[in-house]
Amino acid sequence: MTAQILDGKATAAAIKSELAVRVEALKARGITPGLGTILVGDDPGSHIYVAGKHRDCAQIGIASIQRELPASATQEEIEAVVRELNDNPACTGYIVQLPLPKGVDTNRVLELMDPAKDADGLHPTSLGRLVLGQRAPLPCTPNGVIKLLRRHDVPLAGAHVVVVGRGITVGRSLPLLLTRRSENATVTQCHTGTRDLPALLRQADIVVAAAGVPHLIKPEDVKPGAAVLDVGVSRDENGKILGDVHPGVREVAGWLSPNPGGVGPMTRAMLLANVVEAAELAGAGAAGAGHAG
Ligand SMILES: Nc1nc2c(c(=O)[nH]1)N[C@@H](CN(C=O)c1ccc(C(=O)N[C@@H](CCC(=O)O)C(=O)O)cc1)CN2
C-alpha cells in the first residue's frame, strides 16, 4: 500500500482563497482585519514561520503589524509590546511567536494579551473556553490537523486517535478538539513518559506525531491503512526538516501528511481564519450595537 498524501499546501491554498472573499466583504463594510506578530530572538524556524504568516496576510488582503525584539529583550520590554498591540486599533488580532527565549515567563506574556485579540487560541481564556465548549479562537495547528483530515474525508467519528506530544501549541489542546461531539473521536495521549508507545500506536486509526523526535514513528508501529500526520519538526545540520515519521511509513499508512507540506501550511491558514472570524464577529457586534441605538 502507498499512502494517499494529505496535501496541506493545496488544502491551505484553497482555504486562503475562501478567506480572501470574506476579507473583501469585510473591507466593503469598512473593516480591515490586521494581524500583529511579536517575534523575540533569533530562532531561525520562528523567523521563517512569521515571514510566512505575513506573506499569507498580503495574499488575502489582511494588514500586517510586525514587532521584533532581540533575544536580549527583558520581560518588561516584551510586555510593553504586548500592551501596545492590545491598544493598537489597527491590530484586530495578534500572536506571540513561540518559543520565547529562555528566561522569559511565557505564561505571563500570554496572560497579558487582550483575549479579544488572541489570534492563536493560546490565551488562557481561549483555552478555558475550549474546555467549557464555548466559542473561542481555536489553536491553529490542532485546528489545521482536523481540517486537513476533514477535507480528505478521513473518518473521525469513532476513530481511535493516538496523539504523541504534550506541548502547548499541539499536544495539549488537540485531544480537546478531537473529543468534541462534532468530531467524536477517542483519544489516547502519549508523550516521552509513555510505556510501550509502539503497542499503543499499533491500535491507532489515526496517529498525530508532535513529539519533535526525528523518525520516532516507524513503519512497524503503524496499523496498515491508518492515517499518519507528521507534525514534529527537528532540523538536521543543514537546516533541513526532519519529521517525527520515518519515510517507510508511506508504504504502510492509508493517508500520510508530509513534513514539510502537510500540517505547517494548515497552521498558517487557520491563523488567517481566526483573524477573519474575529473581525466578522466584531463587525457583527458593531452592527448590532448600531441597530440597538
Ligand atoms: N504562537 C505560536 N507559536 C508557534 C506555533 C503556533 O501555532 N503559534 N506553532 C509552531 C510554529 N508554527 C506556527 O507558528 C508554524 C510551523 C510550521 C509552518 C510551516 O508553514 N511550515 C512549512 C515549512 C517551513 C520551513 O521550511 O521551515 C511546512 O510545513 O511546509 C508554519 C507555522 C511553533 N510556534
Automatic annotation (TrEMBL):
It holds the Pfam family THF_DHG_CYH_C. Catalyzes the oxidation of 5,10-methylenetetrahydrofolate to 5,10-methenyltetrahydrofolate and then the hydrolysis of 5,10-methenyltetrahydrofolate to 10-formyltetrahydrofolate. Its EC number is 1.5.1.5, 3.5.4.9. It catalyses: (6R)-5,10-methylene-5,6,7,8-tetrahydrofolate + NADP(+) = (6R)-5,10-methenyltetrahydrofolate + NADPH; (6R)-5,10-methenyltetrahydrofolate + H2O = (6R)-10-formyltetrahydrofolate + H(+). GO terms for molecular function: methenyltetrahydrofolate cyclohydrolase activity; methylenetetrahydrofolate dehydrogenase (NADP+) activity. Belongs to the tetrahydrofolate dehydrogenase/cyclohydrolase family. Pathway: One-carbon metabolism; tetrahydrofolate interconversion. GO terms for cellular component: cytosol. Residues 139-280 form the Tetrahydrofolate dehydrogenase/cyclohydrolase NAD(P)-binding domain. Residues 6-120 form the Tetrahydrofolate dehydrogenase/cyclohydrolase catalytic domain. The keyword Repeat does not apply. NCBIfam families: PRK14193.1. Homodimer. This is Bifunctional protein FolD. NADP(+) binds at residues 165-167, 233. InterPro entries: Aminoacid_DH-like_N_sf (IPR046346), NAD(P)-bd_dom_sf (IPR036291), THF_DH/CycHdrlase (IPR000672), THF_DH/CycHdrlase_cat_dom (IPR020630), THF_DH/CycHdrlase_NAD-bd_dom (IPR020631). It comes from Streptantibioticus cattleyicolor (strain ATCC 35852 / DSM 46488 / JCM 4925 / NBRC 14057 / NRRL 8057) (Streptomyces cattleya). Keywords: Amino-acid biosynthesis, Histidine biosynthesis, Hydrolase, Methionine biosynthesis, Multifunctional enzyme, NADP, One-carbon metabolism, Oxidoreductase, Purine biosynthesis. GO terms for biological process: L-histidine biosynthetic process; methionine biosynthetic process; purine nucleotide biosynthetic process; tetrahydrofolate interconversion. The gene is folD. CDD domains: NAD_bind_m-THF_DH_Cyclohyd.
